[in-house]
């Protein structure tokens, strides 16, 4: 699989934001979610909480596996007990989160790339709907008349 090109991805973020009339931060967030889902597909488990962050300045993508600090672990994939959490982060508290491991992302397999594509398409559609809803939210309960020829 071809290497992940963050600089090219940054250009795509700007283009998509303009075309879809969305803030760049929203599009960037969608792509980070997609990278996290793709990484989880290739390397993790379904239950894991995975977060991705893109650094558009230095062209890197980093994925972190996050676990919630609990008294008694019921799910190893996304929970860690307080004692273990304190070894990783001395400031860890019950109910808080601890970053277990981080990975630089450079490539994805074919299936993971398809997963990322699906996440991007779905999240962009959701974001577009939210923008339209916000645009017309103040018009709920009013009658809107459209002037012009009906084609």
Automatic annotation (TrEMBL):
Domain Transcription factor NusA N-terminal positions: 9-130
GO BP: any one term: transcription antitermination
Matching Gene3D superfamilies: NusA, N-terminal domain (3.30.1480.10)
SUPFAM superfamilies tied to this protein: Transcription factor NusA, N-terminal domain
GO molecular function: DNA-binding transcription factor activity; RNA binding
One Gene Ontology cellular component: cytosol
Pfam families (UniProt xref): NusA_N
Keywords: RNA-binding
InterPro entries referenced in this protein's UniProt entry, alphabetically: NusA_N_sf, TF_NusA_bacterial, TF_NusA_N
PANTHER family listed in its UniProt record: TRANSCRIPTION TERMINATION FACTOR NUSA, TRANSCRIPTION TERMINATION_ANTITERMINATION PROTEIN NUSA
The protein, known as: Transcription factor NusA N-terminal domain-containing protein
């Amino acid at each position: 699989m071809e290497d992940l090109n963050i600089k090219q991805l940054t250009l795509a973020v700007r283009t998509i934001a303009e075309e879809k009339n969305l803030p760049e931060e929203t599009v960037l967030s969608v792509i980070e979610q997609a990278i996290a889902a793709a990484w989880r597909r290739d390397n993790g488990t379904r239950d894991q909480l995975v977060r991705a962050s893109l650094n558009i300045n230095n062209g890197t993508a980093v994925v972190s596996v996050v676990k919630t600090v609990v008294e008694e672990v019921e799910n190893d994939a996304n929970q860690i007990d307080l004692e273990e959490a304190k070894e990783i982060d001395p400031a860890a508290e019950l109910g808080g989160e601890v970053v277990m491991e981080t990975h630089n992302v450079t490539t994805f397999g074919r299936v993971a790339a398809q997963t990322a594509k699906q996440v991007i398409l779905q999240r962009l559609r959701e974001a577009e709907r939210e923008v339209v809803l916000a645009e017309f939210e103040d018009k709920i309960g009013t009658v809107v008349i459209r002037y012009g020829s009906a084609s």
